[in-house]
Amino acid sequence: MSLSAPDAKIFPCTQSRDLAEKIAKAYGQPLGKIITSTYSDGEFQPSFEESIRGSRVFIIGSTMPSSENLMEMLLMLDAAKRASARHITAVLPYFGWARQDRKDKPRVPIAAKLVANLLETAGATRIITMDLHADQIQGFFERPVDHLFASTVFLPYLESLNLPNMTIASPDMGGSKRAYAYSKALDCDVVICYKQREKANVISHMELIGDVKGRNVILADDMVDTAGTLTKAADLMMERGALSVRAICTHALLSGDAYERLEKSKLQELIVTDSIPPKQESSKVRILSCADLFADVMHRVHSNTSIASKFLM
């Protein structure tokens, strides 16, 4: 007797439940049953409340700090492995700890590599993520990595704005590749901000390479944390004669005084995805969902079909 492959099962980590529900709806099936028990001291234990033996399991959870978010993903991967799931895919809309992708000074960790090792040791047989902070992080894994680009989410929105004299800007030298890719897709010019830092999240000096006078500028970056770089870049560009400045940032960490900085800045709009749950509402923040993108790719992974069409950049 031949048996057909079981349906894929989708489970959420706590911090990404809202996004997981959107992904499951777009995928066309409900979320799987899981409960999390918590001890008095804060230790927690996730438990799958249905059989996953022989199944393809998708576990959805962004791993931004606190470290409990990463720990929950690791525990769920381990539980799935010990429950005899056949394929275990860690769906990480935001891959946290990615800024530590190299030794930029002596005696520091390479946290992104450590996290990759942890995910694989815990049981992940495949990784699906979006807009890694550095492309080379894919090479930290020994398992397949599907690295998606949020350009498939942002480009339709940018085109709908119908902005004349559009210019794409990179807030730093490291993002120039991303900026050039967007400029190619939108057939527009590119400018680059050059910044020097005193320390993490503190900018000492910023200069602009290129002309923005009379232009509607779109800053493109993979993440926004304190919003210091974006707001300083927006203010600088408006001083140099830009008509308007917007920003597209895939992952909205928005920590510290980020929301206050956004409200006080000359940035007209910050466009982000829902890879990270918003901490509060803001009139300047527009959230576009990446649920359809992940649901489509998960379908293709389960059916073993190509996802090449999702790589626009």
Automatic annotation (TrEMBL):
Gene3D superfamilies: 3.40.50.2020. It comes from Leeuwenhoekiella blandensis (strain CECT 7118 / CCUG 51940 / KCTC 22103 / MED217). SMART domains: Pribosyltran_N. It catalyses: D-ribose 5-phosphate + ATP = 5-phospho-alpha-D-ribose 1-diphosphate + AMP + H(+). InterPro entries: PRib_PP_synth_CS (IPR000842), Pribosyltran_N (IPR029099), PRTase-like (IPR029057), PRTase_dom (IPR000836), Rib-P_diPkinase (IPR005946). Keywords: ATP-binding, Cytoplasm, Kinase, Magnesium, Metal-binding, Nucleotide biosynthesis, Nucleotide-binding, Transferase. GO terms for cellular component: cytoplasm; ribose phosphate diphosphokinase complex. Its EC number is 2.7.6.1. GO terms for biological process: 5-phosphoribose 1-diphosphate biosynthetic process; purine nucleotide biosynthetic process; ribonucleoside monophosphate biosynthetic process. GO terms for molecular function: ATP binding; kinase activity; magnesium ion binding; ribose phosphate diphosphokinase activity. Signal peptide: none annotated. This is ribose-phosphate diphosphokinase. Residues 9-123 form the Ribose-phosphate pyrophosphokinase N-terminal domain. SUPFAM superfamilies: PRTase-like. Coiled coil: none annotated. Pfam families: Pribosyl_synth (PF14572), Pribosyltran_N (PF13793).
